[in-house]
C-alpha cells in the first residue's frame, strides 16, 4: 500500500503540513484532506503559489543538470520534499550519489519507500537548522567515504528558517565540504515587515507550525558568509529557467520585494 493511511500513525492528521501542501500544489497525491483545505485557503490569498512551487523545482532541475554536466557526482540535499517530479536522482546520470533529507517524518517515511531499491540514494530525517546531523551521519560516511567534492542543496527552505539558522547552515556546510564544492539555494526577496496580503500568508504558515522568515536579498548576501557567489549571481527564478510567470509580479506588488531568486555558491 502506498497511501497516506499507511503513515497515519506518524502524521498529525489535525495539522496541515507545508511539505504535503507543496506536494498537493505540484499535482502530487501524497497529502491529506487537511492539507488540501489549507492549500485552497492559501490559493485564495496567494494564487501564484502553484507556479512558484513549479519554479522552485525547475530551478533545482536547471542547476542540478548544469553541475552534473560539470562533473559533480555527489549531491547532499536539505528540505528535499518527496524525491519525485524530476528530483535530483531522477535527472542525474547513473552512479551519482544523492543524500536527501527533510524535517517532516511523513515525507521521510514515504521517501524511504520510494528510493529503497536505489543503490546510491539515501533519505535521512534532518532539520536543516542542524545540517551537521546529515553531514556527520554514519550513512553519509558509508556512502561517500572521504569524498568531499559535493553539491549542497538548500532549495525552497531559507524562508522557513530564521537568520541565525541560515548563517549556521552556511558556515557548517562550508567547513565540511572540500574546495571546489558548490551550494545552490533559492529564497524570496521580501521586506521583513510585509504588507497585509503577505501577512495573511504568514499567518496560515504560522498556524501550521511552519512560520515564515521573509528577508531581503541584501540580508541573504550577508548570511551566506564564507561562500562565494558564482556567475550569474542572484537571479530571479524565472530568469534561471527562462519562463515568465505571474510570481514576480505578485511578489513585487504584495510583498514589497523583488521576487523569488536563486544562486549558486562556491567554495
Ligand atoms: C518548498 S519544499 C522544497 C522542496 C525541494 N527542496 C525543492 O527544491 O523542490 C519545502 C520542504 O521543506 C521542508 N522543511 C520545512 N522546514 C524544514 C526544516 N527546518 N528542515 C528541513 N526541512 C524542512 C518541508 O517539509 C518541505 O518538504
Could you explain the architecture of this structure?
With about 270 residues, the protein is α/β, with parallel strands linked by helices. It has a single domain (about 50-200, about 215-265), classed as Rossmann fold (3-Layer(aba) Sandwich). About 45% of the residues lie in helices and about 15% in strands. The chain has 12 helices and 8 strands. Helix 1 (about 20-25) packs across helix 2 and helix 2 packs antiparallel against helix 9 (about 195-205). The structure holds S-adenosylmethionine. S-adenosylmethionine binds near residues 19, 57, 156 and 161.
Write a compact overview of the structure shown.
By secondary structure, the chain is an alpha/beta fold.
Question: Which short descriptors sum up this protein?
Answer:
single chain, 267 residues, alpha/beta, Rossmann fold, eight-stranded mixed sheet, 12 helices, 8 strands, 43% helix, 15% strand, disordered N terminus, binds S-adenosylmethionine
| CATH architecture term | 3-Layer(aba) Sandwich
Q: Helices and strands: which structural class?
A: alpha/beta
Question: What's the SSE pattern?
Answer: HHHEHEHEHHEHEHHEEHHE
What is the rounded distance between the termini? Answer: 44 Å
Bound molecules: S-adenosylmethionine
Helix content: 40-55%
What is the global morphology?
globular
Topology:
Layout: H1 18-25, H2 33-45, H3 49-69, E1 74-78, H4 88-91, E2 97-102, H5 105-115, E3 121-125, H6 132-135, H7 138-144, E4 151-155, H8 163-176, E5 182-189, H9 196-207, H10 217-223, E6 228-229, E7 235-236, H11 237-241, H12 247-254, E8 259-266
Parallel strand pairs: 1-2, 1-4, 2-3, 4-5
Antiparallel strand pairs: 5-8, 6-8, 7-8
Bound molecules: S-adenosylmethionine.
S-adenosylmethionine binds next to helix 1 and helix 3.
